[in-house]
Amino acid sequence: xxxxxxxxxxxxxxxxxxxxxxxxxxxxxxxxxxxxxxxxxxxxxxxxxxxxxxxxxxxxxxxxxxxxxxxxxxxxxxxxxxxxxxxxxxxxxxxxxxxxxxxxxxxxxxxxxxxxx
Length: 117
Known about the structure:
- The structure is a single chain.
- The protein is α+β, with helices and mostly antiparallel strands.
- The protein has 2 helices and 6 strands.
- It is globular.
């Protein structure tokens, strides 16, 4: 089964390090793919970023190509919401498209287990 971690509220840099650590420890729940959703609010506008990669969380910040994480795996700027998902595939293929968070129109989410129909 998959693992889900998250932090929400008025976050500080210490929370960003905690989020990284939670995402790393959560790999015991799945390592097929990892994804993250962050939400921040600036000038009354919500800014959402979704990143996902195959394998463990370090694949999100390796090679310094992430818009969320710095090269140490710490969220570069504290965000209002940080949601992470480590997938252990039970159905479907192991691809970036099958990784969570899922985006459908204006809805973004994660789940644990298998959804039918």
